[in-house]
Amino acid sequence: MKRIAMITGVNGQDGSYLSEFLLSKDYEVHGIIRRHSTICTQRIDHIINNSSFKDKFFLHYGDLTDSCSLAELIRKIKPTEVYNLAAQSHVGISFEVPEYTAEATGVSTIKILEAIRQNKPDCRFYQASTSELFGGIPSTVPQSETTPFYPKSPYGAAKLYSYWITVNYREAYNMFACNGILFNHESPRRGEEFVTRKITIAVAKIMAGKQDKLSLGNLNAKRDWGYAGDYVEGMWLMLQQDKPDDYVLATNETHTVREFVEAAFEEVGIKIEWRGSGIDEKGYDSKSGKLLVDVNPKYFRPAEVELLLGDPSKAEKQLGWKRKVKFRELVKIMMISDTKTITPPLMTD
């Protein structure tokens, strides 16, 4: 049977890696993008421009808030698998645009599910859930599929609706619908507004003399950071099972924002020395004494999630999935990429 995948958010970090992965397995891939006045396909341009994929990779305009366009796309594409990766995905920004976040990240999911139910009920559906569902219960670690949810942001709350409506459609209509509860996963394609890319870009700019220092919020926040390229395989594996279910994908180890900063600077030969505490904490180059990192309260969230640590044992046992890239290797991959971007090689005749 011909395998046809439809990906919302195809031009995002996960969408680009998933497209590559599915194309390597001979899928026909259809990506959904919103119409913009400027081109925003940088993460997938290498796929678009690859002549090998001209009959396998297609882009369509659509919007998750428009149920009519979603239904028409399902009827037109007739996908065997749908991966819903699109969302307003920034936790901090969700406090600034909570209503839009609820619509684009939460309510949109039922529009896709309903479009599938009415037009292609045998299609398998993947919903991108998030570790932000757990939010406010740091005492319950590691967090697994059975950990109670307690989101602490408009983003987390919207994703909670998406999670439960996916379960509801699975049980009510016997649809093959899965939630992937993915903990933080990063890469050189991560959006620049996310803290990991903010760090690696800033370190690269500091080394290139284009930035003086890096300003951050909560240095003590702990996250379970993996590599996005590993996680898209887990998404695919969920839809290849005999029965639909929900799975946590994580590394089962946690690192603070402070550790990420230290690792990034170590990749360029700088050891950070910390002085002070709280909002007065600062990071200095241990050799030169130059100020490189400070804390700015404007980057604090109204409600902070202090600790996220995932237990991927169910996915490892039932899916055969396991992360490959470890924390320090992830930081290295991102630093190499951003250093090349910030300081491109000199052109020679």
Which residues form runs of ≥5 with pLDDT under 50?
A: none
The secondary-structure element order is EHEHEHEHHEHEEHEEEHEEHEEEHH
Distance between the termini: 52 Å
Q: Strand order across the biggest sheet? A: 3-2-1-4-5-6-11
Range of helix content: 25-40%
Q: Label the overall shape.
A: globular
Note the main sheet: 7 strands, parallel
Strand content: 15-25%
Number of helices: 11
Describe the structure.
- By secondary structure, this protein is of the alpha/beta class.
- The chain has eleven helices and 15 strands.
- Helix 3 packs parallel to helix 5, helix 7 runs parallel beside helix 9 and helix 7 crosses helix 11.
- The radius of gyration is 21 Å and the shape is globular.
What's the quick description here?
The chain has 349 residues and is an alpha/beta fold. Helices cover 37% and strands 17% of the residues. A 7-stranded parallel beta sheet has the order 3-2-1-4-5-6-11, with helices on both faces. A 4-stranded mixed beta sheet has the order 8-15-14-13. A two-stranded parallel ribbon has the order 7-10.
Supply the key terms.
349 residues, 17% strand, alpha/beta, 4-stranded mixed beta sheet
Write the layout of secondary structure elements.
Blueprint: E1 4-8, H1 13-24, E2 28-33, H2 45-48, E3 57-61, H3 67-77, E4 81-84, H4 91-94, H5 98-119, E5 124-130, H6 154-173, E6 177-182, E7 185-186, H7 195-207, E8 214-216, E9 222-223, E10 226-227, H8 228-238, E11 247-249, E12 255-256, H9 257-266, E13 272-275, E14 282-285, E15 291-295, H10 313-318, H11 327-342
Parallel strand pairs: 1-2, 1-4, 2-3, 4-5, 5-6, 6-11, 7-10, 8-15
Antiparallel strand pairs: 9-12, 13-14, 14-15
Helix pairs in contact: 1-8, 3-5, 5-6, 7-9, 7-11
